[in-house]
Amino acid sequence: MFVDQVSVYVKAGDGGNGLVAYRREKYVPKGGPAGGDGGNGANIVFKVDEGLNTLMDFRYNRHFKGKRGENGMSKTQHGKNAAAYVIPVPPGTTVIDEDTGEVIADLTNHEQEAVIAKGGRGGRGNTRFASPRNPAPDMAENGEPGQERNIKVELKLIADVGLVGFPSVGKSTLLSVVSAAKPKVAAYHFTTIAPNLGVVDTGDQRSFVMADLPGLIEGASQGVGLGHQFLRHVERTRVIVHVIDMAGTEGRDPYEDYVKINEELAAYDKKLLTRPQIIAANKMDMPDAEENLREFKEKLGDEIPIYRISAITKDGLRDLLFAVADKLEEIPKYEQEIEPADETVVYRYQKEEDPFHISRDPDGAFVLYGHRIETLFKMTDFQHDEAVQRFSRQLRGMGVDKALRERGAQDGDTVRLLDYEFDFIE
């Protein structure tokens, strides 16, 4: 089964907790703190494996969670960092954050890697908090929570040549006779419901990858038929081969077919019209094909090369494949398109995210939320009084006390943070 789009949840590993410990050795009366730091949590990493050509592995496993870092140990020993969780993906994979719409990574080259979710930092042990004022601190940090994301993983096949055309014009038949691929071939529309890939050998030490894409119809770019979900695969191809039923076996005009397909490609992405195109006039062994081809050439002109072929009898295939191979030699391999930078560099000020927000629950309690304040809370070990006092100072420094007073908080009011409740005390 071909899978080219899937939603996935990823959670990087949490950092290990720091340790509160003290050095206790004979003849060392004032050993001092000796708690080690926790290790870092595992990153979630996507790595390209050119042996894959589908997202099938994601179909049955939609949740990926990295290991947490090892906790700190006594004698100032650092906890072990967790190894990255590496997930293989096929070339042409695009990763998008579902919540923000941001493109996280566009992976095209073999063994290319991208960190999709970053592991949490390990918490600091009490050794790190020692100072002349407090030489033996009784506190340590918990590990930072790992990043979690809902992502959309899309595959855009990286093929050298893409076959496009209306249903039943002979794309699958053409691929089956020029390569070892065995796509399903039948005399009805949408026989091909997933892209098929085949390696074509021209016989003169040249080869390329050809993709047979499901039939496009008018309105495909708006979601009509199957074309909408597979148009993305045309984006990566370096040469587009239009396969046209020149015999008009279904009563359509070949030139109108050609125009409509180009309109759908342009409606999806105007850049596709800049790709080199070659026309494969198929079914030339059928009646009326010669007359239709003559009319087609009159309407089109000499802009785009046309090759007469018959996928059934294999006539003209050698010339077509040589022309495609010659065209590919003129075009560099796919490289990620980078928009040319403007000569004038404009630095935009990006406002930092507010460290906290305040709202009210129906029962009158004040609710604190925000990424920074929640992270500080999760990294605080409330079993030690010094850690609690430090957290209180951090809140005061962030302006939480002042903001609560401005919102009308009074002595004894309830303040909620995540699943915990505190009393506001003046």
UniProtKB/TrEMBL annotation:
Chief location of this protein within or outside the cell: cytoplasm
The encoding gene: obg
Domain OCT residue range list: 348-426
Protein known as: GTPase Obg
Record region (Disordered): 118-146
Pfam families: DUF1967, GTP1_OBG, MMR_HSR1
Every OBG-type G domain range: 159-329
Organism: Oceanobacillus neutriphilus
Binding residue positions for GTP: 165-172, 190-194, 212-215, 282-285, 310-312
Protein family (similarity comment): Belongs to the TRAFAC class OBG-HflX-like GTPase superfamily. OBG GTPase family.
Assembly and interaction partners: Monomer.
